[in-house]
Each structure stands twice: as C-alpha cells, then as structure tokens.
Amino acid sequence: MLAASLSLTVMLAGCSSNKTEEKSPSASSTQPTASSASASPTASGSIPSDKEFKIKLMSWHGGEEQYGPAYNNAFEAYMKLHPNVKIEHLYQPNANNGYTKLLDTQFVSHEAPDAMMLPNQDAAKYANQDYLLTLDGYLQLPSAYNSDQATWLDTFKGGENSFSSAKSGNKYGAIIMIPVDGGPGSSPLIPFYYNKDIFDKAGITEVPETWAELLEACQKIKDLGIDPVAADGNRFLQWMDAFSGYQLEPGHVANLFDEKYRIKEMKVDLRRVAIATGMYKADDPVEAASLDLMKEFSQYWQQGWAAINEDQAKQIFLLGKAAIYMDGNWDYSYFEKNIKGFTFDVMPFPVITKETTPFASEMLPVAGDQQSGGWGLNKDLEKDEEKLKVVLDIFQFLTSKENQQTMSDEGVFVPVVNNVDVTSKIQAFIATDKNKIASNQLNEVPLFNESTDGKAILQLWLTGQADKAATMNKLHEQAVNNVKKKIVEALDNEVGVPSQIKTLEAQLEELNSTNAPENVKKATEDSLAVAKLKLEFYQQFADAAK
Amino acid sequence: MSALAAVTSKKKAARFVGYAFVLPAVLFTAIFDYFPMLDGIWHSFYRWNGNNIEIFVGLGNFKEILSDSVFWTSVRNMLFFLVCNIVLMLPTLVASIVLFRIKHSRWQYAYRVLMCIPMFIPGIVIMLLWQFLYNPQYGFLNQLLASWGLENLQQLWLGDPAMVKWCLVFIGFPWIGSIALLIYLAGLQNLDSSIWDAAAIDGASPLQRALSIEIPLLKGQFKLNLISVLAGAVTGYNLQLVVTNGGPGFSTTVPGLYMYQHAFGSVNADYGYASAVGLLLFLIALLISLLSMKFIRSEE
C-alpha cells in the first residue's frame, strides 16, 4: 500500500517534472506554473501593494534568544518596506519534539503556517508527504534583492551544489527549503570565549593560535591565581577529547584498510572493525597522545570540574572566575547581554603543532559544504498566488546580501549567501585555510567514542584516580564489547546492511519504473553502492565479532 | 419463581455495573503498569535499541552486567546509600514523637504544616539548590567559609571523590520525610490514651517513654517506611542523576543510574541491556522486601 502510494507520488512527480520542463529547463520537479512564474519578482515592490497580507512564519527561535531577535528585526524591516504585509513570527520550542508534533497536526488539518523553519530531515519528511512546495523553479529566477547574480540560487554559498544533500533526501529530488541562517563553512571545532581583561592582566597580548601557545597563556593566567579554564565533566570533556584527537595523525584508522573502503560514509565501520580485530589496540599511541594532551591541559581547569555541568561552568566564566570557556555561536548574545564587568572575545580552537606531539597534523578538519536546513513553504500557498508571491519576496529579502549582513551580525551565525562581510564576532566560528583534514581521514578517538562510560573513565584519569594504562584498558574493554555487537547487527539479515541493501534495491527498482528524477535515482544508486561495499567489508571481518 | 429471576437478574446487572466501574482502572493498570514491566522482562533477553534492532541474546545481557566492574562499583555505592538512608530514618521518627508530645494543638498543627511544606517543593528544585550551594567556585558553602576567614576549610564538595557521597547524603538534611512523619503521627494518635496515663503514674522519663512505649508501638509504621526506603535506595537514581550524573568518575554511580545511562546516556543505547539491569534491581528489591516481610511476621 505504502509502496503503491510512493510509486504514485513519484509518478506524479515525474509527470509534473515533464510538464514543467517546458517552462523551466533546469527545473527538476514541481515548478512555478505559468501563473506563478508571472509572480517572478523582478524588483522589490513587485508584490501587490493594493492588498493587505497576513503571513505566518514559524520557527523554534524565541524572541529573547539569539536568532529570534535577528529574525524579528528583519521581519520588521520588511514590513517597513511593505506596509501592507503583516508578518507574524510564531514561536514553537523544539523540546520533546513539540515543533514537529505541532506541524504534523497542522499539516493534516491544513492549518500550518505559510513557512516554517525545518532541518533537512524534517523538510524531506514533509516534502515526501506533499506538504511543502518544491522550490527549484523559483530559485532559478532572479532575486529581487540581489540583482548582481543571475539567479536566486546563485546567490547562495556553494550555489546549487550546496543543496545536493537536501535534494537527495526527498522523493522529488528537489530543493524544498530556503536557508537563511548558518550556511556552509562553519568550523567543525567549537571555539573558546575568553575574558579579555584577564588576558590583559596576565600580559597575553596575542590570542593563542597553537596548542602550545594556549598552554602558555593558561600558565600565565594560573600564575595570577585565576582559574584559566571553566571546564565541566560532560560536554567540555567530550569536545576536548574529540577536537584534540581530530588533529592527530589523519588516516590513522582509515589507512589500516584497503583504499576503496576509505570513504567518509564508512569511517565508523572502519574504526569498529579496527577495534574488534585488534588492529587498533588498547595502547594505541595516537589515542594515548590525545589523552596526554588532555591531561596536560586539565591542570588549567578549575578545581572540582568533574562534578559540574556546562551551565555551572558557564556561570564560573560569567562571574569572571575563569578566563576561558568553550561554547558555540548560539550563546554569543547571551554573553553579550549577561557579561558585566569585563569584556570578552572568541578565539578559534588552536592548532596542535609538532612542538606538542609528533602525531600533530598541524591542520584542522574541513568544514561541511552543505546547507543543513532552512524554511519550507506550505504547499497550500499554491492556492493563493498573490500570497505566494509575498512569501517568496520575504525570503528573497531575508537572503539578500544586505539583510544577511545585518542578520548574521545580530544573530551571530554564518551567512548563507555570498559576498557578505563577516564581522569579527563570527570570525572564530568560520573555517579557515587551516581546515584541511578530509572527513574520511579524521581520527575520531575510537576507543573513547565506542566506549559506554568514556567521560567517567576520562574523569578518573584526569583527576589522578587511574593511570593511563588502566584508562585505556577500560575504554578498550567497553569499546570491544560495543563494536562486536555493532558488527553482529551490521551482518544481521533482518536489521543489518543486507536488509538495507534489499530496501535500496526495491526503491531503485521503483524509481526506475516510475521515471523519477535523475538526481534521486543517482542518490539511491550511490547509497546502494556504499551499502554493498559495507557488506563486503563486514563479511571479510565477520570472525572479529565472535 | 419470576420474582427470584428478577432478583437474580438485578444482582447480575449490579455486578456488571460494578465490574464496568472497575474495568477502566484494571485496563489502565494492565496497560501502563503491567505491560511495560512484562515487556521489560521480555526485552532483558534481547539486544534492543528500542526501534528496529531486536536480537535474542539469551542470558548474554546478564552475563555482561555481572562481569562489568562499573556495575559492581554502582552496587557498592548503592549499599552505602542504603545504609545511610536506613540510619537517617531516625530523625523522622524522633520528630514525630516530639510533635506528638506537643500538647498545644495550635502549635502542633503549625509544626505539622511546617514539616509538610517541603512535600510541595519539587525534589528537583531542592537538588539543584544544593548543587548550587556545593559549587566550589561560587557556591554558598565555600563563600560562607571565606567570609568567616576559614578559607583553609573550603572543599571541593561534589568534586571530591572522597566526600561526594556524604555530600549527597547531606542533601536530605534534616532528613525529615513528610509522608513518613504523617504515618508515624497517625500511628501515635491511634494509640489508647490510657497507655500515657499508665506511663505517667509509673514515673517514666521522656526517654523511657520513647524507648519503651512509642518506638515499639510504632514498629508497624516503621516497617512500612523501611520497605519504601529500601525499594527507593535500591532502584532510585534521581539524586545522583541530577546532582553529579554519577561522578566524579563512578563515585556516585548507582545501579539505577547505570541502567539509565545504558538506555539513554550514550550512543551505544541498549534498552535490552538496561531492561536486564532493571530486572536485576527488581529482584534485589523484591528479595530485600520479602526478607523485611518475614521479619515483620516473625515479630508479630
């Protein structure tokens, strides 16, 4: 039944695609009809001005939070430009899946807002249920607010390529969301917020760029009798272990296996098999080096860090009792509002150099190049062409160079369009030319990542209650246990890779028989090829799970 | 004959109505209490991720649990909290006796209300408040010591593996449980007043009255509270989860938290394994409760 309905919808999509190709050759699925194409904006103010419009837009950003005010101010600016348009920004928190639960019911009853913020996977879900407009055609038209680019799509960072993940996730193979905040290029490493006053007092004139410089700066702060780092026993520990490990010996695990398996989709599989087979040992020198780095750094964390959480650590920084705190861009405005009595800035995660360990690659991991989410447009808008025009115009405004400049500065996020000057606030969150390690080469501290109690085990090591050998043995013991189970699962005919292959083959057959868009077929073929490669890989090492 | 049939059918109808009233409660109890419990027992023999992966592993989960040193550390920690919780039943018992002896009914009422107020404060608020008090950098306790010029007595509190368990125990201070207090009070109020007259005539001191009359006569209520304390200490983990998350290291990890972390706390989520821990905890709590029941019977 489900398969039949999927075939039907894909078939319809195929028909739709064929029809619209006549109007827009680059379109891949449902495209603007003749009437909506006439809605193509050519200049701001192309929306009907003789009629009042009430537009409902929903996001999970509250008015008091960082992104919320940035959006609200942009909406205000738009309404000033178009006094006949009233934008209502609906706030629905994400907690307990409340956001998608609400949308699920709203879509069914056709009560959903005109546009809603969605991560890629949810956008794909609603597009597959035919609740969202496919947007390729609209994006192929010029934007009213970016006249220097040929099409609206070209204004986005990475252009059409940056949408390839998002496109392959839905049955139409279409662009089904418009990104507005957090574009490709963000650094995968979380930076450090720091207290500039304490740095000045300690005589630190240059922001540390390498690990050695960071430790040197911490020592100077410690000499003042101030805790250099506000750490916690949970999130901070996880980040620190990952971010220091990432930089060591790229390809350390991947290079243990044949070249054809060294693809980013299989990096987790490689590390699991490496641990299970004993190729990656309990005394792995690279993971040992990352533990040593942490241990050395931990002497600069405030006392009692192991028993506190990130919120308490944040308070310590906020109160000026520690000089450095690791956090993402989402808290920037919080600090701007709440820090009293000292000035702060953000420094990128430092590069580990060979001065610190021979395993240092002296590089950072590459940034992602894909749009990770955006705003979906309600398919019901097709019934009201004028309103659709207005909604599209709002998003062209939001993604204009000028507005992105203002919004990204205020919301402290990486802009989604090209040619936006990045202010100093965002600089530390953006990847630079140091971000060179390909994701399939990343050393992801395998023992820590595959263990169950990694953080607690590290706490014992870092607080001197266990030695390094015992720490690594415990991590290894748990990791071996876990990866063996994962390998059994991967080889299981009912739930593992074999069943994944069957599903993908069935999907592909259906896509072929329904003349689905080429990019959807290609994405399914690629997934199938990866699944087959995985199975071949696991079958070679099946004994490792025993 | 027809009158008898009418009476029978009326009785049947009345019985049917009775069953109909009870049916929703029976259904909901079966669905929300018994089904999850039986499902948990079933899944303790599986590797189960709560979704698509459900692989029968026999006694594999139990073997793994019993060979995991973290589990045994958590059991040791649980025993520590169990003993402390039993000892700390005493303040409630004493408070109830003192409260009962307050003759002025208005004062007794006022104290009763005062001791019951904590019942209406969510436990999580109290735990978070204590977490704040214990913070070594900005917490109340170290600030207080500093203001008295006693910096050398400042502690890491929750950050010190040797001290953290005691810190958690102290969170219950003054260890007066509102529900237990009301149970004891009800027990004392139900006693025949002639006992007190006889004690007064015999010239019993307040301590003698407590040791020879009040405490022995409250044994039934004490045992009831004891079972609830035992079950709570064996299976509970709220305090550890909220205040320390089992740390530093495994210093405050208890079996309940161990179960929780295996179900929700890591990327290697395994509800089957967690169900097996739950089943073990259930058996331990059941065993201790049965022993207590036996103890109650032998005394009575």
| SS class of chain B | mainly alpha
Structural class by secondary-structure content of chain A: alpha/beta
Total number of strands of chain A: 10
Average pLDDT metric of chain A? 87
Total helices of chain B: the number is: 15
Uncertain segments of chain B are: none
The total count of helices of chain A amounts to 22
Main beta-sheet strand count, sense and barrel state of chain A: 4 strands, mixed
Give the SSE order of chain B as H and E letters.
HEEHHHHHHHHHHHHHH
In terms of DSSP E residues, the strand content of chain B is: under 5%
- Strand count, sense and closure of the main sheet of chain B? 2 strands, antiparallel
CATH level 3 topology of chain B: MetI-like fold
Average predicted local confidence, pLDDT of chain B? 88
Shape of chain B: flat
Q: Low-confidence segments of chain A, ≥5 residues, pLDDT <50?
A: 1-45
Number of strands of chain B: 2
> What would you say the CATH architecture of chain B is?
Orthogonal Bundle
Strand order across the biggest sheet of chain B?
A: 1-2
Organism (chain B): Cohnella fermenti
InterPro entries (chain B): ABC_transporter_permease, MetI-like, MetI-like_sf
Protein name (chain B): Sugar ABC transporter permease
Transmembrane segments (chain B): 16-35, 78-102, 109-133, 163-186, 224-243, 271-291
